[in-house]
Amino acid sequence: MKEVVCAGDSITRGLASANYVSLLRDRLGPDGYRFVNAGVDGNLAWNVLQRLDEVIACRPDAVTLLVGTNDVNATYDARWARHYRRQQRLPATPSPQWYRRNVDAILDRLQNGTSARLAVLDLPPLGEDLSSTMNQRVREYNTVLREVADGRGVPCLPLHERLVALLPPGHRPPPYEGRLGLALRTTFQHLVLRRSWNEISAANGLTLLTDHIHLNDTAAAVIADLIAEWLRTSPPRRS
């Protein structure tokens, strides 16, 4: 059995977002892969760094890392920065420089504490207006992420590129306005009203994101495709 740990935030946990880890279990479980979901809602890269002991304890054959959306979102305004510092008990105000240090520390710890193959995924858009200030920041953070991964010889799977390619020509999405309430409503609609993530996304005028932050079924399938392609290209050793 090959143990794969998927580390990250709510996009990985899959409660407020379509669950790509479940898709991977369905696809690759019969081929001898076991997937551990190590996603925690609201986490920034620093939070993932603090809980790597539980990842290492899994003795993984492979680890994927998708984290940074909350690092970017925390820069939306001072209110969001305060929210994240309080909720996630952060010791510093989020910034690209702090993100770089934390991602580098995560990869260093995994490379020295496990024999696992590693891959990172770059960050999805934050809102679907690619010209927005927040998406300019997403691109900045993705540049940081790729530099760190490249410096450690870790592949960076092109999630952002794959998702952007799926946005329709002339797409005019509503702006992302940094409102937490929309995320709570979409989760309620899915869990209680049993609406699909794609239905919720379309009702909000979006193509891939449900609430400007989390992913619908189409977008989650892109992550599953990327990770499955990576695992199949050079599968980890059998434990």
TrEMBL record:
Pfam families: Lipase_GDSL_2
InterPro entries membership: Ester_Hydrolysis_Enzymes, SGNH_hydro, SGNH_hydro_sf
Gene source species: Catellatospora citrea
Domain SGNH hydrolase-type esterase, first and last residues per copy: 6-163
GO molecular function: phosphatidylcholine lysophospholipase activity
Name of the protein: SGNH hydrolase-type esterase domain-containing protein
Gene3D superfamilies per UniProt: SGNH hydrolase
